[in-house]
Design brief:
about 400 residues, alpha/beta, Archaeosine Trna-guanine Transglycosylase, Chain: A, domain 4, Transcription Regulator spoIIAA, Rossmann fold, 3 domains, 6-stranded mixed beta sheet, 10 helices, binds S-adenosyl-L-homocysteine
Length: about 400
């Protein structure tokens, strides 16, 4: 195994079992490891620190896997890690709340670069690191053994693979191709999931709990669901008999799927309007036309892909939330989210406070949203915490 030597003074994070070593922290590489090869990390004195995947094309040059020198990272090691992650989701699946969840969440499940989502009997897999790509056959085999899925579909078409010097990979890996829409249940609501063409791996199951929590407030209310995608918040609000829901998304496919999801569920004459538009434009239009709502949901895509983008993203979040506040009825509720890992809750609250000042409104935080148990946050990898939200009463 090839040795990689860490710079003096860079030991702390490794000793604290943080799984990333940046290229700038590396003193030297004793040999020429292939990308994705497992190497030994040594301190400057030559003492063992950890084993990890090596990649010289990535800013994260090493993704650490194991800190015990005596342990061999073999097939059994990988199978065990997969088994532990899958077993940890059994309570979510057994409660009957859903048949759909994230089974494996990358570093947060000690499997850097591997994401597996379960949609009823079908699995969608995403591999984002070259190291994990080498282990793919074992992962697929273990998932088949544990779950016997109807299909496993490769959605490794994310642009982040480029950072690892990898080509996209897409298509059926095991079983027969899934139907165009796989029917799943979440919070008692039925959805058709387009595994091959949907965004990310097809569905945002990370909002499962938050949709239910928000819906508790929606009875008899007029709701505006911005960035609605396939209707998660929209449908949960109808389930609790919202008076009306308006869904806004810029994606034609998302709106089309939302409409078919609405039909899948037997709500009694839902008063629904779907608008395919840019949310910022549409919010301004509502403002001009004097249309107001009891509840506004803002669940935008990731505005800050990295810490360096945070300042610009903060302005975008502020402006979006200011617009959202301006079309709320007095005392209305704003459910606002950020899925940018670089944005922490304290900063997010500050941004909402600024937006309120600009809008001339008073805001009370009445609930904090977070990511659900199938998207765990490892204590040694705080970067895994990405989804946060605030339920605000706006006066
Ligand atoms: N709330 C959704 C998930 C939202 S994902 C749920 O519960 O499932 C973000 C969505 O924002 C995507 O559907 C994307 O199409 C949409 N989007 C991105 N930029 C947009 C914009 N400027 N205007 C409107 N929609 C946008």
């Amino acid at each position: 195994m090839i040795d990689v030597v860490l710079k003096k003074g860079k030991e702390k994070a490794v000793l604290h079992k943080h799984p990333w070593v940046f290229s700038g922290a590396i003193e030297k590489v004793k040999g020429k490891p292939a990308n994705g090869e497992i190497v030994r990390l040594l301190n400057i004195k030559g003492e063992f620190m950890a084993y990890g995947f090596y990649n010289d094309q990535s800013r994260v040059a090493l993704r650490l896997l194991e800190w015990d020198e005596q342990v061999t990272i073999d097939e059994a090691w990988w199978r065990e890690k997969v088994g532990v992650a899958v077993a940890a989701r059994s309570s979510i699946l057994e409660e009957g709340v859903t048949d759909t969840c994230r089974l494996i969440f990358s570093e947060s499940d000690y499997l850097p670069g591997l994401i597996v989502d379960k949609y009823a009997d079908h699995l969608s897999l995403q591999i984002l690191t070259s190291g994990m790509e080498n282990i793919k056959p074992v992962i697929i085999d273990e998932l088949q053994k544990l779950l016997n899925p109807a299909s496993i579909f490769d959605r490794s078409d994310a642009s982040s693979r480029e950072h690892e010097g990898m080509q996209p990979s897409f298509g059926i890996l095991a079983g027969s191709p899934p139907p165009e829409l796989v029917e799943v249940v979440e919070n008692g609501i039925r959805y058709g999931i387009n595994i091959a063409e949907g965004q990310k791996s097809g569905f945002y199951c990370d909002q499962r709990d938050n949709r239910r929590i928000l819906a508790d407030y929606a009875n008899g209310k007029t709701v505006l669901d911005c960035f609605s995608y396939t209707g998660g918040f929209t449908l949960n609000c109808f389930q609790n008999e919202a008076k009306s829901v308006t869904s806004v998304d810029s994606s034609a496919l998302a709106i089309e799927t939302l409409k078919s999801n609405l039909e899948l569920n037997d709500f009694e004459q839902p008063d629904h309007r779907a608008i395919q538009s840019d949310v910022n434009k549409q919010l301004r239009k509502f403002r001009e036309e004097g249309e107001t709502f009891d509840i506004v949901v803002l669940d935008p895509p990731k505005y800050a892909p990295s810490r360096s983008a945070l300042e610009r993203a903060s302005r975008a979040y502020k402006d979006l939330n200011r617009l959202g506040m301006l079309i709320l009825k007095p005392g209305g509720l704003l459910a606002t989210f950020s899925c940018s890992g670089a944005m922490d809750m304290t900063t997010f609250k500050q941004i909402i406070a600024w937006a309120a000042l600009d809008a001339g409104k008073q805001v009370q935080f009445i609930h904090q949203f977070c990511q659900p148990g199938d998207h765990p946050v490892s204590a040694t990898f705080p970067e895994g915490e990405y989804l946060k939200g605030l339920l605000c009463r706006v006066l």
